[in-house]
Design brief:
The protein is built from nine helices and twelve strands. It is of the alpha/beta class. The strands form three sheets. The protein has a five-stranded parallel β-sheet with strand order 2-1-3-4-5, with helices on both faces. Strands 6-7-8-9 form a four-stranded antiparallel β-sheet. The longest helix has 16 residues, at about 110-125. Bound molecules: calcium ion.
Length: about 230
């Protein structure tokens, strides 16, 4: 199974939205489309897209509001697409947490490049990953952020989308304890159920695929009652 990036396109002009959708689907992305700010907020919270392409001029709200709301709980890259050419708009969008800004009209090649760069920057938040050419390596474990695959001793362990998201999140913060709530929020969105049963089920599956002895994990440790911690990269 191929794991694709999911991009949410927030754009009220339907022809532009469907044009962007076509281009990104042709380039191997899953594409979600929202035509209003409210729709966008619902989709961001329920689908947790990997990247957001955001038009600032929406019928029901200013796109800036969305940037600020998302940044309260998530580092998901946001690429603003707007007809506004004013430098101040650009600066305030970036200051509010947007990753990049493309002015309409734009070429599709340019938009694709900007989105890929934003995804790469988000991935490279950890310096160890930059040093390792897009990979996190610890012992026999390799997380390949480009291919979105996880290998043990060179063998693909075939994680599901959510399992991959959990492992890559822990790898990005390797050595640090991530709380159950923090992980739940990053994977299932801010409206997650406070019961972390779903996370424990996913972790049990991850360990079955990843660990020689799932009862004595070597890569992802449980901090009892707190969360999980990934073994640091050497
Ligand atoms: Ca618009």
């Amino acid at each position: 199974m191929e794991l694709k990036y999911t991009v949410l396109v927030v754009e009220d002009e339907k022809n532009i939205a469907s044009f962007i959708k076509t281009v990104f689907e042709a380039n191997n992305f899953n594409v979600l489309v929202a035509h209003t700010g409210n729709e966008a907020e619902l989709m961001i919270n329920s689908h947790c897209p990997d990247v957001i392409i955001l038009d600032l001029g929406l019928p029901d709200m200013d796109g800036m509001t969305i940037i600020k709301q998302v940044r309260q709980w998530s580092a998901t890259p946001i690429v603003v697409v707007s007809a506004r050419t004013d430098e101040n708009d650009k600066i305030s969008a970036l200051d509010s947490g947007a990753d990049d800004y493309v002015t309409k009209p734009f070429g599709t090649g340019e938009l694709l490049a900007r989105v890929r760069t934003a995804l790469r920057h988000a991935r490279n938040a950890d310096v160890g990953i930059i040093a390792n050419e897009g990979k996190f390596v610890s012992g026999n474990l390799t997380v390949d952020y480009d291919k979105r695959r996880v290998y043990i001793s060179g063998n693909d362990i075939h994680l599901t989308q959510n399992e991959y998201k959990i492992v890559s999140l822990l790898a990005r913060y390797a050595g640090k304890v991530l709380t159950y709530d923090n992980i739940m929020k990053q994977i299932w969105g801010p409206n997650f159920q406070s019961d972390n049963q779903i996370l424990r089920v996913n972790m049990a599956n991850i360990r079955r695929k990843m660990e020689e002895n799932p009862a004595e994990p070597k890569y992802i440790y449980t901090e009892l009652g707190v969360g999980y911690r990934m073994l640091e990269s050497e």
